[in-house]
């Protein structure tokens, strides 16, 4: 009986390990969908870029200047575990892509933070490694960057950074305006 309990416990742990690693998100987003793909990340080659497509503000905008220190800070947060010297394909899952940049699109020009500021965002990571955060304000972009950083995991045995459960699509906003 005891060995059956141990086997069941290991089976549950194995399922939890290979499933999407979104249970580490805090707080849980209001809308979340995941898949079964896996991408690797090389933090030393990862860059944050401001999208200038469509209605997004360009890299020379006030929003870009506001977010530049955040980009630098989060690059350090993402890579704090250690060097990525391993092979992501050794993790046993099929690697479907590599994340090389996180594209941030801020569609609005309002830079003021008030109780009515829209801090919503949409985050998307595709199976090929395309990582995009879209928000109406820089404050929504900050929320999206934080959530995105929580999706990135590190395997110390294989020395690889990765994101599982792709494609991931998240739409979220603070539940309370005063947060």
Structure report:
The protein is an alpha/beta fold and 179 residues long. The protein has a single domain (21-172), classed as Chitobiase, domain 2, CATH 3.30.379.10. 27% of the residues lie in helices and 27% in strands. The protein contains 3 helices and 10 strands. The strands form 2 sheets. It has a 6-stranded mixed sheet, with helices on one face. Helix 2 (62-78) runs parallel beside helix 3 (138-151). The longest helix is centred in the N-terminal third of the chain and has 17 residues, at 2-18. The radius of gyration is 18 Å and the shape is globular.
Please render the helix and strand layout as text.
Blueprint: H1 2-18, E1 31-33, E2 37-41, E3 47-50, H2 62-78, E4 95-99, E5 101-106, E6 121-125, E7 131-135, H3 138-151, E8 153-155, E9 160-166, E10 168-172
Parallel strand pairs: 2-4, 3-5, 5-7
Antiparallel strand pairs: 1-10, 2-9, 6-7, 6-10, 8-9
Helix pairs in contact: 2-3
Q: Could you provide a short overview of the structure?
A:
This protein has 179 residues and is of the alpha/beta class.
* Global Rg: 18 Å
Total count of helical runs of at least 4 residues: 3
- Beta-strand percentage? 25-35%
CATH architecture: 2-Layer Sandwich
CATH topology: Chitobiase, domain 2
- Main beta-sheet annotation: 6 strands, mixed
* Overall number of domains: 1
- In the CATH hierarchy, what is the superfamily? Chitobiase/beta-hexosaminidase domain 2-like
């Amino acid at each position: 009986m005891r060995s059956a309990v141990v086997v069941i416990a290991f089976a549950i742990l194995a399922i939890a390990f290979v499933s999407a690693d979104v249970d580490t998100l805090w707080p849980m987003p209001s809308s979340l969908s995941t898949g079964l793909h896996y991408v690797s990340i090389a933090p030393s080659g990862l860059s944050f870029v401001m999208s200038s497509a469509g209605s997004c503000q360009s890299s020379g905008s006030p929003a870009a200047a506001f977010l530049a220190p955040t980009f630098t800070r989060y690059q350090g947060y993402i890579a704090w575990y250690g060097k990525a010297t391993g092979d992501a394909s050794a993790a046993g899952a099929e690697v479907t892509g590599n994340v090389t940049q996180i594209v941030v699109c801020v569609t609005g020009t309002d830079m003021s933070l008030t109780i009515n500021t829209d801090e919503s965002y949409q985050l998307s990571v595709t199976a090929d490694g395309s990582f995009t955060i879209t928000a109406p304000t820089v404050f929504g972009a900050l929320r999206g960057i934080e959530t995105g950083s929580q999706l990135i995991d590190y395997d110390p045995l294989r020395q690889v950074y990765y994101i599982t459960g792709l494609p991931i699509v998240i739409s979220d906003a603070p539940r309370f305006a005063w947060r």
